[in-house]
Amino acid sequence: MIDTLLLDVDGVLQLYARRPAVTGILTSYELGSRKPQRAFFDTVLTRVRRRAHQCLFVDDTPAYLDGAARSGIATIHYRDNNQVRAELAARGLLPPRVG
Fold it and tell me: Secretion signal: which residues (predicted)?
């Protein structure tokens, strides 16, 4: 999920499309709404064919996290990579770091 203007879409697609963990890219432009609107998150859930409890939203903007949470999506407030890795490991989504 990326908030972007139409002019930025091609650059975003080129940046992320070749990453093996990325299975799809949804932009605000194509969804017709923006974070933190409830419609944005509801549309994303429909497009990825998942229920809110099956998803996790990571962002550095508290208002966007609030929007996701209002849609029932678990959230992580991004501060730095190590903090996110630790929170993902605590949720069983990554193995804990050794060392």
Answer: none
